[in-house]
Structures are given as structure tokens and as C-alpha cells.
């Protein structure tokens, strides 16, 4: 987690700048990176049963897609496969299962990790708005006031 490294190295205070969507003024704030919520999640994906017949073809599929699916799979039926068996398993997966694994991975990526949602009160108009935390150039090399 990069934000934990940043906290350990430079401390939790982080200056951020956001724009109010109502009055368009710029708001400068300092947030505590330690207060940002980290969503941890583990999940098991169930795909269809493995007993199916696939028409054999000499043509391999999209190698980038196959590599991605191989990377996403940790175990098959509770067993860690060696790289060769995992590649064979993925090459024989029906496209419906490949799509399911990819869709599940996308959905999981949206809800795991650092929650970057922030609620900010505008200094000018006083309205509250929602924005997301963005790492800027100051994240790993903050300006030091001397």
C-alpha cells in the first residue's frame, strides 16, 4: 500500500486542492492519510463445472487475455496449479467463464483498496460536495517549508 509508505516516510498530513462544483472556487485542505479507509476483500469465484467438451483448434486465443486470466486465478478447486497446467486450464475455459472471471475482477477492483471518496465543505459558498482523493506530485515528494 503506497499510502502507508507515504505515511511512514513523510507523515500522514497531505495537502490537497479541490474545486467546488457549485461556485467553482478552489479549496485548499489538509487531509490525514491515516484516516482514509482501506477496503480489504478476498473472494472465491465459482465458474461452471469443468466437465465440458471443447472443440479443439490449433489457433490460440488472445495471448494478453489468456495471460490476464491466468494471473487472476490463484487456485482451481482448492489446488494450486503449476504454470503449465494453469495455462492449459485457461486455454480450455469456455469464453463464458473467461468473461465471468474478467467481469468479477473488474467489479472487485472497484471496491477493494484505498477508499478515495472525500466530503469537502467549500470555504467560499459553504456547500458540501463529494470528490475523490488524487495523488499529486506532492504525494512522494512533499514541499518542505524551511
In short:
It is built from four helices and six strands. The chain is of the alpha+beta class and 146 residues long.
Task: Report on the architecture of this protein.
The chain has 146 residues and is an alpha+beta fold. The protein folds into two domains: 2-39 and 113-132, no CATH class; 63-111. The protein has helices at residues 2-10, 63-72, 83-91, 95-111; strands at residues 13-19, 26-32, 38-39, 113-114, 117-121, 128-132. A hairpin with a 6-residue loop joins strand 1 (13-19) and strand 2 (26-32). Helix 2 crosses helix 3.
| Helix/strand order, N-terminal first | HEEEHHHEEE
- DSSP summary, beta strand count: 6
Question: How is the largest sheet built, in terms of strand order?
Answer: 1-2
* Overall pLDDT level: 80
Properties at a glance:
6 strands; two-stranded antiparallel ribbon; alpha+beta; 31% helix; 2 domains
Layout of helices and strands:
Layout: H1 2-10, E1 13-19, E2 26-32, E3 38-39, H2 63-72, H3 83-91, H4 95-111, E4 113-114, E5 117-121, E6 128-132
Antiparallel strand pairs: 1-2, 3-4, 5-6
Amino acid at each position: 500500500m503506497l499510502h502507508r509508505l507515504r505515511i511512514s516516510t513523510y507523515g500522514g498530513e497531505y495537502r490537497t486542492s479541490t474545486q467546488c462544483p457549485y461556485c467553482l472556487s478552489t479549496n485548499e485542505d489538509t487531509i490525514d492519510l491515516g484516516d482514509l479507509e482501506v477496503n480489504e476483500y478476498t473472494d472465491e469465484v465459482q465458474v461452471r463445472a469443468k466437465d465440458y467438451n471443447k472443440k479443439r483448434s490449433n489457433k490460440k486465443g488472445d495471448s494478453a487475455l489468456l495471460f490476464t486470466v491466468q494471473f487472476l486465478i490463484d487456485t482451481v478447486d482448492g489446488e494450486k496449479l503449476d504454470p503449465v497446467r494453469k495455462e492449459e486450464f485457461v486455454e480450455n475455459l469456455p469464453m463464458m467463464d473467461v468473461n465471468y472471471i474478467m467481469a468479477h475482477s473488474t467489479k472487485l477492483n472497484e471496491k477493494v483498496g484505498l477508499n478515495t471518496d472525500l466530503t469537502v465543505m467549500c470555504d467560499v459558498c459553504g456547500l458540501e460536495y463529494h470528490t475523490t482523493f488524487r495523488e499529486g506530485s506532492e504525494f512522494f515528494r512533499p514541499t518542505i517549508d524551511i
